[in-house]
Here is the input.
Amino acid sequence: MTEAAIEKENKDIAQQYKELLRISYQTLTDEDKKLIRQAFDVAVDAHKDQRRKSGEAYIFHPIAVAKIVASEIGLDATSIAAALLHDVVEDTSYTLDDIRKMFGDTVARIVDGLTKISNLEHDKDVSLQAENFRKMLLTLNDDVRVIIIKIADRLHNMQTMDSMRTDKQEKIASETLYIYAPLAHRIGLYNIKTELEDLGLKYTEPDVYNEILQKIRESKEEQDKYIAEFTRVIEDSLDKENLQYTIKGRPKSIYSIRRKMKNQNVTFDEVYDKFAVRIIYGSDPANEKFLAWKIYSIVTDHFRPNPTRLRDWISSPKSTGYEALHITVMGPKGRWVEVQIRSERMNEIAEKGYAAHYKYKQGNQEDGLEEWVNKLQEALENSEVNAVDFVEQFKLNLYSKEIFVFTPQGELKSLPKGATPLDFAFSIHTEIGLKTRGARVNGKLVPLSSTLKTGDQVEIITSEKAKPNSNWLDYATTARARAKIKSSLKEEKKNIAEEGKAILSRKLRAQKIPFNEKTINELVIFFKLKTSLDLFYRVGVGTIDNQKLKDYAASRSNALVSFFKSKIRKQDTVEDIDRDEITAKYDQLVFGRDEEVLDYKLANCCNPIPGDSVFGFITVSEGIKVHKKDCPNAIQLQSNFAYRIIQAKWKDSTQEEFKAVIKLTGIDNIGLVNDVTREISNNMNVNIKNINFDSQDGIFTGKVTVVVKNNSLLKKLIEHLKKINGIDKVTRE
Here is the structure.
C-alpha cells in the first residue's frame, strides 16, 4: 500500500472512532470514553496486520460491530469496549488474561464468551451445528450481552458478505435465518431481526429477494401518497386534542412479504397489508395509557376497525418488553391498514429492546428477558434432550406468538401460542408439572392436551401419585415442559432397568450362566440391542422373558455354533454398551391419536427412515403414503389436502403399549372395586383406560380395559387379580 493510502486509511479509522462516540445511545461519561479509547487502541494494535477478504483493514469490522452495539442496540460503554475487542483473543497474540488485567472481569467475561462462540466448529452436519448453538446459548447465563454482541457481529458480517464465495454466503445466511434472526426477535431487537431476515433471503433466494425489492421500490411513491392521504383524514382530530405526534409509514420487510406470498400462495400484488402506519406520540409516564386509547378512538372514529385484529400490548406487554396498541382498520380505497400506536418511550423500547428497557425500568418490576434467560438455562442444562430436538424446540419458542392466561389467584402469565394446561403447569414450577393429574380451564375439567386461549383462567390439579407418561410429550409444546417430561421418563426407565438387572441376574443364575460383562455383551448382541441399559430395561418390562433367555442359553450351549459365533463376534462387539442411555429401536410406525398400526408405503420423494419426523397422507389408490415433515411436497399436501393428513410417528415396538380387556366375576362385597383398582394401579407399568362394574343379586361382573407393555405383564396381573378375596374368575376377552 502507498503511504498516501495508509494515511487515508488511518484518517478513516480515526473518523470512525469519533462517530462511534457521537452515535452512542447511552450518555457516555469521561470514564466511559477512557474505557472505549483504551479498547480501541488495543484493537487497532492487535489487528494492525490483518485485512478482510474485501481488502480493507480488519479493524473496520470491530469498529462497525461496536457502532451497531452503541447506536442500533444502544448498549453501555462496557459492551462497546467488548465489541471492539471481540476478535482480539481469537485472532491475535493477546490473551484473555491480558484483557482481564487491562479492562477488568466484566469485559474479559464477555470477550471470553464471544471467543468460545467463534471457536465452535462450523459444519454442514446439522447435529454438530445444533450442538454448537446449544453451547452458544449456554453463554447466555454468563452475560446476555455476549449474545447481543454476537448478533451485532453477525449483522455486520451479513452486511459485508459480497466478497465471499457463494457456498459460504449460503451457509452463513441459512444459519442466520435458522438461529440468529429468531434470537434477535426474542431479545426484542426487531429492527435487527428484520435486517437479518432480509439479508438472509438475499443470499439464500437472491432472485426472489431482488424481485420483491424492485416491486417495493416501484410502489414507494404510491405508498407515500397513500400514507399522506391516511394522515390527512385524522390530522385535524389529533391536532384538536393538542397531541404531539408523528405519523410514519413502515413498509413490511421483504422477508415477511415473501413469507406471506408463500403461506397464502399469493402474488406480490395480492399481499394486502404491505405496510403499517405508525403513530408515535409524546407523553409523560402518567398519561401514556390514556393517550394511547384516545388516539385509538380518534383513528376508529374515522376508519372502521377489524375487531378481531386488536392487539393490546399496553395492558399486558410482550415478554420481550414490547408495548404498543395495534389495530387494523379499513383505510381509504377499501384497503386494510395496520396502525401501530406507541408513545416515544414505547417506540424506543421497540427499536432498542434490551437497552431501552433498562433505561426506563423503574423499581423492581419483573424483567421478561431475565425470566426468559433463567427458564432457558433450565432447559439448556438438561442435557437429556438431544441437540437437534432442543434447537428445534427452542426455535419454536423464539418466534411463537404469545397468549396471556390467568392463574386461579388472577395473576397473568404469558405462554407461547398453542400451549396446553401441561405447559402452564411446568411454567409455574417443575414439581407442579411432574405431579399434574388434571386441569380446570374456566372452572371446567379439560384434557391435558387442550389448547389454551388468551384470557383463560387455568387451575392445575396435582397428586402425589401422578407421574408423567409418554403421551405427555404429545400434549406439551414448550421446550421447558418437554425437557422435564423427557428427563422424568428417562429416570423412570432407569428405575425399571435397575429392577431388570436384578431379575436378569437371578434368571441367569437359574440357567447356570455367569452374570458378567462378557455375558451381558453377548446378550446385547443376541437381542440386537445397543446398550446394557436397553437389555436390563427390556427384561424389567418383560419384553425379554424366560423363553427368550432360554433361546439364548440354548444358542450358547451348542458348542460348534458357539465356536463360530465367537469367531464372528470379534467384529460384533458393541462400542457403546455402557452408555448411560436407553435407546429406541424405531421399527414401528403408528398412526393417529390412538397410535394404530396400519398398512403403509414410504414415499419415494423423500424416502423417510425410522426415527424421522413423518406424517401419513391418505392417497386415492395406494393407501397411506408416509412422507417426512420436511419433504418438498409436504407444504403443498398439508395446505391443499389437510383432511387427508394423518398423524404418524415411529416407535420402538418393544416399548409399545397395548390395550387388553380383562373380565372379572365374583361375589359382591364392600370394597371389592377398590381392591381391584388398587391391585392394577400397584402393578408396574399398567394403566387403567376404562372400567365398568355391574352388581346383581350379590354377584358382580366387571370389565377393565388396561394398557400394558406385553403379554407376560398381563398374565402376571391376571394371576394377582385371581388372589383377591371374592373374585371367582378372571379371563382375558
Summary: The first strand starts at residue 245 and ends at 251. The mean pLDDT is 82.
